Amino acid sequence: MKQLLLILILILFQNSLLPQSLDDSEPRIRIGRNYRIYPGDVNQSEVFIVKSPLDQNILFCSCNTLSFIPFFISEGIYVTTDGGISWSGSDTCAGYPIDFHGGDPGIAIDKNGTFIITRLGRSPFTGLYSHFSTDNGQSWSSQNVISTDDLERATLVSDADPLSPFNGRTYAAWIRFALPFPLMMAYTGNGGQNWSQPMQVNNPSSRSAGGDLDIGPGGKVYACWAGVADVTPFNEIFIGFASSDSGGEEWDVTENAFPVNGITGVLANKAKIRVNGLPSIAVDNTNGERRGWIYIVTGQKDLDPAGNDPDVILYRSMDDGLTWSPGIRVNQDTPNNGKTQFFPAIHVDRFGAVNVIFYDDRNTTNDSSGVFLARSKDGGETWAEFEISDHHFKPVPIGGLGQGYQGDNIDITSTDTKLWPVWMDNSTGIYQIWTVPIDYFEVNGVVEEDNSGSFAVLFQNVPNPFGQNTMIRYQVSAFSRVVLKAFDFMGREVRTLVDSEMKPGTYFENFDAAGLPPGVYFYQLQIDDRIVTRKMVLSPQ
């Protein structure tokens, strides 16, 4: 009788702690099969992907394409018009003059569906050139000159917002390799047929590197870049930021928006491949509560909250770039565990969720890597993580393009129903573009689902904030190894609540914070190799 009474009390207690409303739904993720977009016999590196604003079944992907015996360098043209069911294209951009292409593409699709690509030229055509295509990449215009300076790869973004006063304008930005190494930009309003005169955006005291662009509400243009130290190892030491509400004619510039410590150099454990901490920027253009928020991610180490191994760090601005948050550690593995995360790329989808992809070796040996997606539905406060690669690879340099080169960028975009990440992977013997279609839809709770359909759901703790005790509810769909831990704001483990094999079902765990100071804590559910994290707040007694 006492046992029955105890069970009834526990059931009533648990029910009283369930969320009274589940309207704040979170994304459910279904990860598809990894595949190569366009299998070829040349290396494909530094990959980018964009979608058409006219037809979301049309995606355009490009990369460096190169080989050395015989010597060949160009820009890949890969297109799907059926939502990723099939891809077509070529490892060579056919825009005249083909023999003088220098790779390093930037890509965009404008409001009319015109494909635009920028690239470097080879002697005697030093500088930045563009081509355009009005037939989904089947044919390309002759080259158009944007700049004849010696420069770094340009990034492109196109304004397809019908309500923007600059609708149809496509912007290019790059770093000029001449003192003071500034960020430069130009734009086209007619699909790349001609370009404005290049404009110098900033006047840096330290060399700039790695410019990136995005467009926010109302057609406002945002740019970021890294400021580089003038002594070895020439790492990124701060992020610069600029914005223009005049279509790129005038810019408000902050040369040093926040400090960073980029991972510039080589990764000794990965065959000495060359890496960087260059920033990637994304703006929330949804009509949600975070409309207009700006996010920047970099690869860093040895600067809080990054550990002594490479981590992915996010910064956000809620006031149009006037102020920036402290750094937020995106990867949720234990800090200082010797694992390496690098080459982050960021994208905000139609739900306002922040999606960051990056290379990560936490589930493999330190000479290898996989690819992870970190996804936040609350502006970076909490993250759900997914290993989206279904195999690992061992990075090695591509010979002939400088110390440790294997490409410096990966990318991600989305449609209304899918995320589309792209990365380079040499598991076939040469670097090739890989992707995986990731379906997302809405359910209650934070959900992580694997390829077999098994999933884990982690609900918000109740109550939250809490005094000393709070209840954490989670669901397991298949017999799995389950670990549930709590961490403080600095990422230090404070409690292990569960560490055992679990049957499918719904579970409740009480978190007793006795002896812990008030503040922000995180609880993390790991089921096999899948990880989901939420935030909770311990109130003062």
Task: Give your account of this protein's structure.
Helix content is 3%, strand content 45%. The protein is mainly beta and 541 residues long. It has two domains: 2-25 and 452-538, Macroglobulin (MG2) domain (Immunoglobulin-like, Sandwich), CATH 2.60.40.1930; 26-443, Neuraminidase (6 Propeller), CATH 2.120.10.
Mean residue pLDDT: 89
- Give me the CATH architecture of the largest domain, please: 6 Propeller
Largest sheet: 8 strands, antiparallel
Count of extended strands = 41
Strand content: over 45%
Rg over C-alpha atoms, rounded to the nearest angstrom: 24 Å
**Percent helix range:** under 10%
> Span from first to last CA?
36 Å
Shape from CA axes?
globular
For this structure, what is the CATH class of the largest domain? Mainly Beta
Q: Report strand order across the widest sheet.
A: 26-27-28-29-41-40-37-38
Number of domains: 2
Q: Determine the structural class based on helices, strands and strand pairing.
A: mainly beta
* Number of helical stretches of at least 4 residues: 1
Low confidence ranges: 1-27, 442-454
CATH topology of the largest domain: Neuraminidase
Briefly, what is this?
The chain is mainly beta. The protein folds into 2 domains: 2-25 and 452-538, Sandwich (Immunoglobulin-like), CATH 2.60.40; 26-443, Neuraminidase (6 Propeller), CATH 2.120.10.
